[in-house]
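Sequence in, structure out. Go.
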Amino acid sequence: MSVMEVSVNSMQDIVKDKVILVTGGTGSFGKAFARCLLTQHDPKKLIIYSRDEFKQFQMQNEFKALDPDNRLRFFIGDVRDEARLRRALDGVDYVVHAAALKQVPACEYNPGEAIKTNIHGAQNVIEACLDRNVQKVVALSTDKAVNPVNLYGGTKLVSDKLFISANAYAGAKDISFSIVRYGNVAGSRGSVIPFFRGLLEQGKRELPITDHRMTRFWISLPEGVDLVLKALSEAKGGETFISRIPSFKITDLAQAMAPGCIMPEVGIREGEKLHEVMITAEDAPYTYEYEKHFVIYPQIVWSEHKTPEPTGKKVPEGFVYSSGSNDQWLSVEELRERLQEV
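Output:
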């Protein structure tokens, strides 16, 4: 049996016959997660918890053929509503928290709303999970929570801290809270790929670049789903899981999508970074490297029986995991190949 088969079987064991709820489940991640579980795994029930009934209707129709056993359920609710969360979590084993206000300009213009969803909503999820005896909780984070320069990143930093600290309130309960962090997913709503494709569909030959030095990590939706499954399988409580993934230059992406295109530099936007950073030098003393991912372990030990035990290789002092200084890079041709799957 190969290492890959062992990994897949381990993931199957962790979700088999379990009831799983995904907040914000009608988004890009939620759909990919649902498709993976329904086609490759054997959950007892998968609950999509979100506030948009039309998106739920669309998803229900889209997944009919994949769900002949009616394991996919839809629950209208907002993470701002703790009472509704408690109702939805009755009998739930695992929670994946993907709900958030994510658009940087929208959060800047509506800071109070971003705080209500991304911070107060996170606390509501934590409280409801503790009271409903959920076993495992994995919250999705973002590179923008690392040294945040915009409100969205600031709210996600607070959210991350809340989920990690939630392990202190577990007491004797069999529950763990952990984090999965990655950047913009290739092809997801709001990312640069659909933006560039929209311009090309209009017949334009110019793809505007905010800064020619800009770099990003490349992570696909399936890779993001795999990382969440790994966290569900391995987390003891308080860890932050980060994929080891390649970087690319935005200018190379533009050339992969439209060879020879003109790339006018239009200036970096407010709240935008030149490079994505997943691990800071301050995180390095607590970070361990594995074959396909990193784990930042918690600095605080809450109880002996829940203490994570690193088995990987400790990263060097001062280590920074940035898309601008990564040791893996995608060429224009490699980007063109990957774009066919997005």
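Check: The CA atoms of residues 31 and 62 lie 10 Å apart. The mean pLDDT is 92.
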